[in-house]
């Protein structure tokens, strides 16, 4: 499934939006002393198993890193995803 991931700064989250504009999933974050902490990921049940979580993970990490932010991940889903995508392991802090 194709989704667009965009930062919703007012809600402190990144949102995966489908072609109709519906929010398929999100990653919540908080900024603290120059670090973006990614602490919770959720995908709507209607979108489970369609690659939304993976698209969110990759695009959220890419956007935060491209913005020059230090990234710390405590979200279990994102931690597991990074474990399967080692190209991100040296770019973020886990735990």
Task: Describe this protein with a few key phrases.
alpha/beta, six-stranded mixed beta sheet, globular
Structure write-up:
The protein contains two helices and six strands, in the order E-E-E-E-H-E-H-E. Strand 3 (23-32) and strand 4 form a beta hairpin. It is globular. 25% of the residues lie in helices and 37% in strands. The protein is an alpha/beta fold. The protein has a six-stranded mixed beta sheet with strand order 1-2-3-4-5-6. The termini are far apart. It has helices spanning 52-66, 76-84; strands at 4-8, 13-17, 23-32, 35-43, 70-73, 93-94. It has a single domain, classed as Aminopeptidase (3-Layer(aba) Sandwich).
The count of domains is 1
DSSP, total strands: 6
Please mark out the parts with pLDDT under 50 across 5 or more consecutive residues, or reply none: none
CATH architecture: 3-Layer(aba) Sandwich
| Pattern of helices and strands | EEEEHEHE
N→C terminal distance:
30 Å
Helix/strand-derived class? Answer: alpha/beta
Q: Helicity level, as a percent range?
A: 25-40%
CATH class equals Alpha Beta
What is the molecular shape?
globular
Mean pLDDT: 97
CATH superfamily: Gcn5-related N-acetyltransferase (GNAT)
